DNA sequence: TATTAATCGAGACGGTACGTCGAGTCTTTAC
DNA sequence: GTAAAGACTCGACGTACCGTCTCGATTAATA
């Protein structure tokens, strides 16, 4: 996992009354994933999630700013942490995006990720949650890595970080959403290879 | 345009009653594009389109199997025909995908294409319409072109057609949907260049 | 039958083209009766009648001012002519209303009459058609008969014709519509008897 | 009034969430009466009632099994309780049915009652609601009264309760629905008189 | 220990939209 | 000229959800 929503860093617990029920939260996210996989984004409904999780709609609206944000959260919970990449440039780039491949290859992860991407593209709040996660877990480490590779003259310097991000993520997103084809093992490694060939220092 | 909806193979007026009103069809697609740009995919409503087009919902459901299919049709009408590519391999590849760039750079084309992509990813019928268009206007010509380039030893032979398609289309789709950044002029040309570098014959 | 709508008395056949198709009319009324019996008044639809009769909706609207009027026509076609009443006052009164009883006791006549009454009560045109028929076939003969009976001192003179009509017709209409109980043989005779007892000359 | 809708046999607030909004209920019935008077039965629409009452359609369907049942409820709310009849047989019979006359003579009561009767005749649920009310407020007291009068030899014994009911109610229903004539004061008293003359013990 | 504030489930509420059906009109082809 | 076929706009159907609100029950810090 990657701590998608900020847990409020345990702020001294000053309020009266009961605190947030983590068991409710988990049940809601679990139910949300099932509903996402079954009904897609437009067919997704808060009522169904609440009923399936035996939760109240109010509880959902209390903790997420929009249902799209909840969908993204539910999907992010499926994405494992990035592994250590070793020393090889291709492996280090692959390591940044392979958690997505891993999530897409487990259970209904493919469908859940698809709906999360649709939510991020269609809903303001969901988009912010998604881009915040990508920024922290992929974009920022990628920026460091590319700077290092450029300094070592492994790759050229004339690239736009966001263009690279799109070339690395675009293909897998296309596969998850439009073509819906299964994500083969090694798919992300291929993208990393393609990137290095494209930007290789000649 | 690229004749998105099939013209009926029997052009001769054989049935009795009245025929499809082309005025209505145009008004509906126009209204659909406006609604798509304004409200996104989940916020898109048939009622609004019908009202804006002064059309009946029945008329919409009569001619499209689902609202998603109509959205894809509405977007496809924005995409111009592919230009002639000349002789240069990079230009010939670019020519296949540049109509998408052109559509994304005109008026509300960016938003309309985004919603069409979301519809294609979220709705079965819409996905079929979209993939049918891609298959005819991009995938099939691309297959021919790649076979020719491989025969001339410009590119390697060990590629999967669908992987290439995803590498060419994925980045622009990501930009249209997730990052929502404007599509710069020459964006598609860059993808073609990247592809040729990746698959260059060494 | 009682010639509910005026057939134009075979007027010289001067126009071109085919004249009104009597076979169409019969099919429409037959289909209408079936639909009335199956779906009631609020559930009755012109589309269904047209489809069942293999007729065009236009044909229906061409010949009846409203669907209610058509329903009343369809029901009136079920009502036989009044029999000759003989000399007995009770029998003569019974004879005026017994056609309704007869119609209500055949096939789906009960349901058809119910819907016709609902149409007559709910639709302006239907009401006029119904009241025209009642006026000609019941009210007018009843007026003559009551005048004769009053002259012979069989009944009192202080009655309102319309009150009498309501006392004679109200019970059978109530049975057809609200209670939906079967109309027993002799039901109308009982009403006639009750009327004579009520207005008997003492 | 006569408590048309069943008060729930469990008066104690046992369930969790909110209870039925009586404000909404009153607004809906009021709006329904207006719509009934304006548009009749076939022209009556739930959408219009909801809009006029500033209520949601869902709220209507939550509490009534059908729109017809709601129409009957709306009309029953106009009918006052039966007065005390005194000792005179004619007055005691009149007292049972005079609430209908009273309702029919106030404001748009005539039209509202008409539509309620049409609903009761055309819609299963509405018919049940109507017959339940008639059974409790008219038929049952009438049965007791007639038994008493028969025991006192005021009337004959050979009558069918439902036939009597039809003779008492049929005329006023005919007037409300088919003839649409105003209900004169004393109309119900006349029916009671007619009944007593008809069934008088000779 | 009692009070109090926040949480939770359940679900009613006013609304908007769904996809279908029907009304009444109009247009086209067949006879 | 009449009829079948059926497309058209418009409006209503009964259902599903949205996001908000209210209710009784529960839970934990405060008094």
Automatic annotation (TrEMBL), chains A, B, C, D:
Taxonomy, superkingdom: Bacteria
DNA-binding region: 45-64
Segments forming domain HTH tetR-type: 22-82
Region annotation Disordered: where it falls in the sequence: 1-23
Feature: compositional bias, Low complexity: 1-12
InterPro entries the UniProt entry points to: Homeodomain-like_sf, HTH-type_TetR-like_transc_reg, HTH_TetR, Tet_transcr_reg_TetR-rel_C_sf, TetR_C
SUPFAM superfamilies assigned: Homeodomain-like, Tetracyclin repressor-like, C-terminal domain
UniProt xrefs under Gene3D superfamilies: Homeodomain-like (1.10.10.60), Tetracycline Repressor, domain 2 (1.10.357.10)
Keywords attached to this entry: DNA-binding, Transcription, Transcription regulation
Listed GO MF terms: DNA-binding transcription factor activity; transcription cis-regulatory region binding
Keyword DNA damage applies: no
Name of the protein described by the UniProt record: TetR family transcriptional regulator
Organism: Hyphomonas polymorpha PS728
